[in-house]
């Protein structure tokens, strides 16, 4: 994989102008601290904004670096979805966030844009319980199917007892049959 060019990064003000010019009020907040650029967008337009960031030739954020979630227990909306993007040509990085209410913990899947979002979204679903609308295979990836709850939620009980499931290995099954 080729390393990104870093000689002439795009200024955040011009990047923000392009995004706000196309989406206007969809961008709820923005900030740039020490070259760390972030925008917060409406959850309902999450997929549209990210598709634009990826497909617009002047932006070309073509690499999904990471996707994760933050639990702001006690606040509403409770959850914040976070993606980190990279534009290989310019070397520009951008963080995009969207807030998600607890009572409707759903957001559009990014799998149609980046195939790598598949496992990242499954991890967020497994750990936080966020559902991704349009995800092709939304099921647990880290915890076993019988696991109850979402362990990275801040209200998850530390000493919660989980259902035990028998471990079956092919060797043991063969030994028991003999």
Structural commentary:
This protein is α/β, with parallel strands linked by helices and 178 residues long. It has one domain: 2-Layer Sandwich (Beta Polymerase, domain 2), CATH 3.30.460.80. It contains four helices and seven strands, in the order αββαββββαβα. The protein has helices spanning 12-23, 46-55, 117-128, 170-177; strands at 27-33, 36-41, 63-71, 79-86, 93-100, 106-108, 131-133.
Short note summarizing the structure:
The chain has 178 residues and is α/β, with parallel strands linked by helices. The chain is 24% helix and 25% strand.
Task: Compute the CA-based radius of gyration.
Answer: 20 Å
Order of helices and strands: HEEHEEEEHEH
Strand arrangement within the widest β-sheet reads 1-2-5-4-3
The count of domains is 1
Fraction of residues in helix: 10-25%
Number of strands: 7
Report mean pLDDT, rounded to a whole number: 89
Shape: elongated
Share in β-strands: 15-25%
Structural class: alpha/beta
> Between the first and last Cα atoms, what is the distance in angstroms?
52 Å
**CATH fold category name:** Beta Polymerase, domain 2
CATH homologous superfamily classification: NADH:ubiquinone oxidoreductase Nqo5 subunit
User: So what's the oligomer here?
Assistant: single chain
Reading off the top of the CATH hierarchy, the class is best stated as: Alpha Beta
The CATH architecture would be 2-Layer Sandwich
What is the count of helical runs?
Answer: 4
Largest sheet: 5 strands, mixed
Low-confidence stretches: none
